[in-house]
Structures are given as structure tokens and as C-alpha cells.
Amino acid sequence: MPILNPDIARAFDEIADLLEIDNANPFRVRAYRNAARLIQGMSTDLHTMVEAGDDLKELPGIGEDLAGKIVEMVTTGHCSFLEKLEKQTPPALTELLKVPGLGPKRVKALWHELNVETVEHLARAAREGRIRGIPGFGEKSEARILETLQAHLAAIPRFPIAIAAPYVAALVRYLQGVPGVHRVVVAGSFRRGKDTVGDLDVLATATADSLVMTRFTTYGDVSAVLSQGPTRATVILRNKLQVDLRTVDTSAYGAALHYFTGSKTHNIAIRRLGQGIGLKVNEYGLFRGKERVAGETEESVYAAVGLPYIEPELRENRGEIEAARAGRLPKLVERVDLRGDLHSHSSATDGHHSLREMAAAAQAAGLEYLAITEHSRHLTIAHGLDPVRLRRQMEEIDALNGELQGITLLKGVEVDILEDGSLDLPDTLLSDLDLVVGAVHSQFDLPSDRQTARILRAMDSPCFTILAHPSGRLLSSRKPMNVDMSRIIRHARERGCFLEINAQPERLDLVDTHIRTAKEEGVLLAVNSDAHSTQGFAHLPFGIQQARRGWLEKQEVLNTRSLAELKPLLAATMVK
Length: 576
Ligand code: DGT
Ligand code: CA
Ligand code: CA
Hints:
By secondary structure, the protein is of the alpha/beta class. It folds into four domains: about 150 residues, DNA polymerase, domain 1; about 90 residues, Beta Polymerase, domain 2; about 70 residues, DNA polymerase, thumb domain (Beta Polymerase, domain 3); about 240 residues, Metal-dependent hydrolases (TIM Barrel). The protein is built from 24 helices and 17 strands. It binds 2'-deoxyguanosine-5'-triphosphate and calcium ion (2 copies).
């Protein structure tokens, strides 16, 4: 089946849409649109012309570039440029382009106004009624957007933990209000702070006459009840999150909490330890014959098998049991240890609040310093800064620091790492900053050797402080880049720069196992909010949880340092 003119025309139209969303040169966009229209109206088949060896450049408005793309489509059946654009555009946006009545302009407006990068973000904005207020949108288009996205969301099997968290908090509050209920705790992967959760495992202790099971299955946010018994029920929430509730006896609370916290492989290892000393371990307790010897608290469970308490984030059977036995468990970093944040944006680019507002919010979040790190010019979609605008912001920050009390703004940038590994702004400018955060925002699909080389080269720049969201993954929509992360980590140690744990709900990047590698290599990590608004600091706890899953202690996190301790560490990454 040869490729037909309408297919080629559609491909060119899609390219024009994606280029337009990407703020490409309007002339370039128009060239694709005109070509699409021309091809749509042609009576000769392009594939016949290509096969006959005709010169396509004779067609009006078709130059070298477009002719090449037509030949590619006719001979291979697909268009690599379009595929590349599709890959670097958040899938939510390509999906949205298909919603009747939403052209690239309106899709672009949604992206800018709401700062959405994923289908889940956008669906949430629609559910929360935040789309109808945007100029050019109303309740009708909001509903249509939600409908289209829900089909897409049905295919997403796991929830990023920060997306699940508000639903979890609401449910726990509700259950705690049920008469007779004593304790409500969420176990499972949620308690272990895993980046995504499959379902929620809720445990409750309650008086025998408590109506907690009935109240659970009639909770307002429940869309379906899958099963219901006297001590166990399973429901689906409206957002498709599945929740199990179990009631347990107070005397077995610790054993149940331990069992349902998991992970499964950790449980199996603990059970083996128990077997070795003649104990049976299950969710009802630890038993020697018929006698229960432990189980009221988790501490008693561990103590019975000869171990100190192990934090939930470590329970993945990745050496925590051996470390516990040897008395070498890490003393994990905590949210209160954070003294500052080294990655944030203001309304100068794609953030929503002024420098002053961001500083106040950071201070309210208990921080003593905040680095402002706007995007650089290459990221046009985020209104990235050119040298002139960055210089102006540096002056603004200096002036503002003169007024602020108890919080200091640091001058930084989130500079784009270009395809060849060079940075998007000149060293003469970067060297006047306090820190340089480098990030990949395009060409996520290079082969591993080139992608790795690109990042290593960027780190070797005279001014390079922190590699932001190192894997580039988005939990709902983008796989990690194909890179040799161990190599990047070793290079960070040799270069003396740092890696980021980005706390954004869709990122949680660096990934936990690589955090552990970085720890072993002696590379410090920065737990950063990447806040785009004053609300953004609320994500820091999830970044901390991720750090804990990577076994990090306080001193292994860069921004637990006081400003005075931090400054020389930053300065050492910057050639002046
Ligand atoms: P998820 O829901 O996929 O994010 O991951 P988890 O870890 O929450 O797993 P889930 O919900 O299937 O089970 C909750 C916990 O229950 C799990 O972490 C450990 C425990 N568990 C489940 N099945 C087994 C099992 O077959 N053996 C043992 N020892 N524990 C289990
Ligand atoms: Ca679970
Ligand atoms: Ca479960």
C-alpha cells in the first residue's frame, strides 16, 4: 500500500502543529502548512512522481528540505522528523491536539497557563476547574478535554506517589473521623516512599462495633466496591486508584504493619531469619509454637529476630538486613535537615510568582536560601533567558537580597545542555553566577554513547554545578534517557560537581538505585523542588523520601549545609 497524498499532507500539518507549540519560526510553520494544502489539492500522486524520478522542487513552495521529507515518506512509510518532534513534545499536548476544537494556539495556552507536562497534570487541572478560567476556554471545552484525557489515563497503571498523596491524606482524615477508629496508617509501597504506587494498603485498628468498613465502602470518592468482608474491603476511587482496607487487632498491629509495608522480598528475608531461630512470622505476629512472642509494634518484630528497627524506605532487601545486623544502618536524612533549595523558577520565565513571592514562600517552608535558576534561551517554550535578561535578573536579585531578611536568593540558571554537550549561555556570563544547574530538555532519544558523551561534556564546562533531573524521565509519560548513569556518576566525582534529586511529582529523578550508587561514589546530591510557583516547595518531602530510598544521610545532601558552608562548595564548581 503506497503512502497517499493525504497521509503526507497530514504529516506536514502535524509537523506544523508541533512546531507551533514549540514556538518555532512562524515562516517555518507556514511553509509546512502551505505544503500540506498544496499536496491536499494535487491531482498527481506524489509516490508516482518519486518513482518516476520527477524533481519535487519544481512544485511551488517545495524546497530541498520538504522534498527530502516527501521522498523519505514515500520510500520508508514514515517521517523521522515528525517522530522526533512527537517524542520531544509532552504526550499530553499531542493528545490534546486531537481534541475537537483545540488547535496548537489553545494547546500552547494550556501548557503555558497551567505549566502542564503530562496527561495527569492536565486532567487534574480539568477536574479542579482550572481550565475554564483561561481566556478562550469555558466549561464546555474543559469537559471535553477531561473526557479525552480520561480515555488516555485509563491506560496508566501506577500513580506517582505525590499525585496519590492528596487522595491518601483525604481518605485517612475521613477514616480517622469514623467513631471507634483508633489508628489509620497507609502501608505498602506508599509507606516505603516508592516513586509510584500500584495500590494503597490501609490498616486500621478500631473497636469491635466500629462501622469503619461500611464507612470506607461508602466514602464519597469511591467509584466501585470490589469486595467487602468483616475485616477487609477493596474499593476503586474515582481517579482509578485501588485501595485495600484491613482492620487488625491492636495486639498484632506491628506485625500487620510490618507485613503490609513490605516489600515482599524484605518480608521473605525477615521470615527466613525468624525460621532460623524457630519463629513463625506472619501478619498476625511472631510465634514460637502457639505462643505469640512479638507483634504489637514493628520494633518488637525486628527485635524478635535480633535486629534494630529498619526505616520503611530501606525495606527492599537491598542490603538493609545485613546492614542492620552489622549495626551499619544509615541515619537517614529528614525534611527538617534541608536548609535551602537550589533549583526554582519565577515569572521571569515559566514560573508563576515573582522573586519576592518565591523568596517568601521558601522562607515559610523553613529554608534559608533559594537559588533562582531560570531556563536559558534555547528553551523558547519556557521564555528562556538570553544574556541580557539574565544580567537584569542578577541585578534584581542583588537588590532584593539587600532587603530580604532571613532568606538569601542565590543567582543561578538552569542552562540547556545542547545536543553537542555545550551549554546554551557563554561562560563569561555563567561565571558571574553563584551556581549553574545544567539540564537536558531536548533530544532525549540519542543513542546511549552519544547521550552519555553529551552529558559528560556538559559537566566538563568551566562552570557547572548540578546536573538537574539526570535521567530525564517523566513518570507518566517519558522513559529515562538511554545513558550510562554509573559513568556519569563517576564523572561527577572526578569533576567535583553534584547531581540533583528533583522532587517534582512526575520526575523524582535521580532514581533511587542511582542515588545509592552516587552515595557509594561519594557524590553529593541536591534535593531540589524545581518550584515553578510558591506551592512548589510542598514537593520537597517526596524528594527527601527518594533520597532516603537511596540511603542518604544528612551530610550526603548538599543543601543541608548552611549558606556559609555551601558557598565554597558551589564556588569550587565555577571557574572565575
Ligand atoms: P504496589 O502496590 O505495587 O506499589 O507495591 P506494594 O509493595 O504496596 O505491594 P502490594 O500492594 O501488592 O502488597 C502490599 C504488601 O503486602 C507488600 O509490600 C508485602 C505484602 N505482601 C503482599 N504479598 C505478599 C506475599 O506473597 N508474601 C509476603 N511475604 N508479603 C506479601
Ligand atoms: Ca500497594
Ligand atoms: Ca495491595
